[in-house]
Design goal:
Blueprint lengths: L27 E7 L13 H18 L3 E5 L13 H17 L4 E4 L5 H11 L3 E4 L5 E4 L2 E4 L2 H11 L5 E6 L4 E3 L5 H10 L5 E4 L10 H11 L4 E3 L16 E4 L15 H11 L1
Parallel strand pairs: 1-2, 1-11, 2-3, 3-4, 4-7, 7-9, 9-10, 10-11
Antiparallel strand pairs: 5-6, 5-8
Helix pairs in contact: 1-2, 1-7, 2-3, 3-4, 5-6
Length: 279
């Protein structure tokens, strides 16, 4: 039976009309474009065109492999800012995403690391992206950037201010590379993220980039999320995808790269193999 990937905008018990064109997709697959270090970051290589070309190459490879959407993030900008990033990051990401938008006809997502949701929203609004990822929408987490606090109160108001209700918010719960300030039931965190943070979809990940997600964790999140879509956000591969029966979709990055090396280009064959197993 086909399970539509529908977004419950009002968080009531009924299903709303889907804006993103995924209503006929049983399991949504979003591929990652990991940007090389942008100008101003410690690892910037000095060639802006090389960053753009690598991003477009990976986006086109993901599209050729059959993904349903693409998410772009400033992965190379380590160490990350805990909150707002420099304006140059926003400008360059907007230009790159706009170029990808011209080349690839798929829904695009934006993640501005570590937790700059306002900039992600601005990039999405300017470049025509469909969704953003927020690592800490509600609550607070201890991370390698220090304590990162939720931004739902600012982000949701900024979305209204921009008239960008069509840009959907995909929010992590128990996000990777972090620990809670104080343990609390996972179901409570999911409920708050949806009912009080107004997330349009929820993401569950493992301990870090490329590290496996616990299928039981996903089932628990889905049980608490109800009609709100739940995506697996890290560590998924073709050999493990069948374990995630409760997930509505997957966000894959490392497993799509050549030799599963996060620093390598996207391998179309690996993408196609993953999609075949999902379908």
């Amino acid at each position: 039976m086909t399970i539509p990937f529908a977004l419950d905008f009002g968080h009531t018990i009924h299903m709303s009309v889907l804006v993103l064109p995924w209503s006929n997709v049983r399991k949504v697959v979003v591929g990652m474009v990991h940007l090389l270090a942008l100008p101003g970051s410690p690892r910037f290589g000095g060639d802006i065109s090389a960053i753009r070309d690598a991003a477009v190459r990976d986006a086109e490879a993901l599209a050729a492999g059959g993904v349903h959407g693409i998410m772009v993030e400033n992965f190379g900008d380590v160490p990350f800012y805990p909150g707002r990033v420099p304006v140059a990051v926003v400008a360059h990401m907007t230009a790159i995403v706009a170029e990808i938008r011209r080349r690839v006809e798929l829904p695009l997502g934006i993640n501005v690391l570590r937790n700059d949701g306002q900039s992600a929203l601005a990039v999405a609004h300017a470049a025509g992206a469909s969704f953003i990822r927020i690592n800490v929408l509600c609550g607070a987490r201890v991370t390698d950037q220090g304590i990162v606090q939720g931004i739902a109160h600012e982000l949701l108001r900024e979305r209204v201010h921009l008239g960008a209700a069509d840009v959907k918010i995909f929010a992590d719960v128990d996000v990777k590379h972090s620990a809670p300030l104080a343990p609390r039931p996972l179901a409570d965190e999911v409920t708050d993220t949806i009912a009080r943070g107004l997330a349009d979809a929820v993401i569950v990940s493992g301990a870090g980039t490329g590290k496996p997600t616990d299928p039981q964790h996903v089932r628990a999140v889905k049980a608490a999320a109800g009609h709100v879509p739940v995506l697996v956000g890290s560590g998924i591969s073709g050999s493990t995808v069948q374990e995630f029966d409760a997930a509505d979709g997957f966000i894959a990055g490392t497993s799509f790269k050549r030799d599963a090396d996060v620093a390598a280009p996207v391998d179309v064959a690996r993408v196609k193999e993953f999609l075949a197993r999902v379908q």
